[in-house]
UniProtKB/TrEMBL annotation:
Residues 92-112 are annotated as: Disordered. It comes from Streptomyces sioyaensis. This is XRE family transcriptional regulator.
Length: 479
């Protein structure tokens, strides 16, 4: 998306017939109109959209229908068609200046940072300061930065299994006490609750400001017990900043804050939260389509807490493993890992685990399992869609709108289950619920998942209720 595709003149994009074709995902008509009024040949359309000329020819001839959201996003980005016209969220380039190039800070951050407490403090300070004063141009650059994958990601995290080094720098004396840390830990917990309820948005700035303050406090020499707790707070805040960045579409930035969170947990000696951070990175790369990386990350997490993890953390790690296994099509292994998660969760008791994993209960397990079965159902709908719907309904029965982001994702998943088995009435009803729930969260992840429903609602002769559902999705994604 960094290099603009062939521009379509504003008057072309304003044409009612083209807008109607784009809204219906009628790419036979859309490509024909772009050829006629936009002056683009089939070869130029194909090159811009990363399609073959033959494929474009077949689409125009009505011999091939484009329904993949991946391809539709490529068409939007290649031809610079605003997302709203295709039922997508606004594309990252829509407010992006043309002369965006990687900054020295972006290039510098890719260099290896040693696993030392002072390096972790410096990394946190650098990230928060640059984010708190981020310009529109820097924000556009951050939105277009891809997450790191493969060996570049995995090798950089191996230091988590090594002993933490001491911070022997000369520093001035700090004055924080136990009561100060109680307040900071309460604040970190509140911010985490914000993230679960609202996702990214303006609240992210508050988290970054507090994270910067904690990094500044760690630049002073605190009592050993205070310093350890401070690193724990920094890990919590950085983890929250990571998920908020991810929800805002800042995928590389999210990874960088996950890195700070993991290093801070390492410095605090909190291997349990470190494993939780690795699971968060695994979830991010799963959404990015890299299940093998996710498996490696989960196993790295399991290696670090094999003898110390509580039942909820073990259960959560098994579900991440199951997710990755389902993504590579290993259905039997997925079921085995899911059964291990259920067994581990059965041994959990109230108050036994840290507060940050308390969310992982029977409802969360059902929702996660339903989501993975839904992924399998996209390949084999008659085998998996009904089971996916059953698990998702269990999640909806056990958690309500207070679990804002998860609640919306449950409704979206249930609607897709109905679409997959051809139950249009049930699909429309659940799509209405999904849109209503999505309207109460700022989560970019929720909007991206809601966009996955859009292709099910398009066509030349769709019934009125389905058109109404499509309009609801389009209206929400446009906000």
């Amino acid at each position: 998306m960094d290099a603009p595709g062939p521009p379509l003149a504003p008057d072309v994009l304003e044409r009612d017939d083209l807008r109607r074709a784009l809204g219906e995902h009628d790419f036979a008509a859309a490509f024909a109109l772009i050829k006629k009024w936009g002056g683009l040949s089939q070869n130029k359309i194909a090159a811009a959209c990363e399609l073959t000329p033959g494929k474009v020819s077949n689409v125009i001839a009505g011999q091939h229908q484009i329904s993949s959201m991946v391809v539709i996003r490529r068409i939007a980005d290649g031809l610079r068609i605003p997302g709203i016209l295709l039922g997508l969220a606004p594309r990252p380039w829509e407010d992006q200046p043309r002369d965006v190039t990687p900054s020295p800070e972006d290039r510098r951050h890719s260099e290896e940072v040693p696993w030392r407490p002072d390096a972790t403090i410096g990394l946190s300070d650098h990230l928060t300061r640059s984010d708190l004063v981020m310009t529109r141009r820097a924000a556009a650059r951050a939105l277009s930065a891809a997450a790191v994958t493969g060996a570049a990601l995995l090798d950089s995290l191996e230091g988590w299994l090594q002993p933490a080094g001491a911070d022997n720098r000369p520093r001035r004396q700090g004055r924080l006490g136990a009561r100060d840390l109680d307040d900071l830990e309460t604040t970190a917990r509140t911010f985490r609750a914000w993230d679960h309820r609202y996702g990214g948005g303006l609240r992210r700035k508050a988290v970054l400001g507090q994270l910067n303050e904690v990094a500044s406090a760690l630049d002073q020499h605190q009592a050993t017990s205070i310093e350890r707790r401070l690193y724990g707070v920094m890990a919590q805040l950085a983890g929250t900043a990571a998920t908020m960045a991810w929800d805002s579409g800042l995928h590389r930035r999210a990874q960088e804050y996950y890195d700070v969170a993991l290093r801070s947990a390492h410095a605090a000696g909190d291997t349990a939260f470190g494993a939780n951070v690795l699971a968060g990175i695994a979830r991010q790369v799963l959404y990015g389509g890299h299940p093998q990386d996710a498996l490696e990350l989960v196993r790295l997490a399991q290696d670090g807490v094999r003898t110390t993890a509580g039942p909820r953390l073990r259960a959560m790690l098994h579900t991440r493993e199951a997710w990755a296994l389902a993504a590579v099509g290993r259905t039997a292994a997925f079921r085995r890992a899911t059964a291990q998660a259920r067994d581990a969760l059965a041994h959990a008791t109230t108050g036994q685990d840290p507060y940050w994993i308390a969310y992982f209960d029977e409802a969360e397990l059902a929702g996660v399992t339903g989501g993975r079965l839904l992924e399998l159902a996209r390949r084999q709908p008659h085998e998996h869609a009904h089971m996916a719907a059953e698990e998702i309904r269990m999640a909806l029965d056990q958690r309500g709108p207070e679990a804002s982001r998860s609640h919306a994702l449950d409704w979206i998943g249930l609607a897709e289950c109905h679409f997959l088995v051809g139950d249009v009435t049930g699909a429309v009803e659940n799509t209405h619920h999904a849109v209503d729930a999505a309207a109460h969260t700022q989560s970019g992840r929720v909007r991206n998942q809601l966009a996955q429903l859009y292709p099910y609602t398009v066509g030349r002769d769709v019934p009125g209720p389905l058109r109404e559902a499509r309009n609801q999705i389009r209206d929400l994604l446009a906000t």
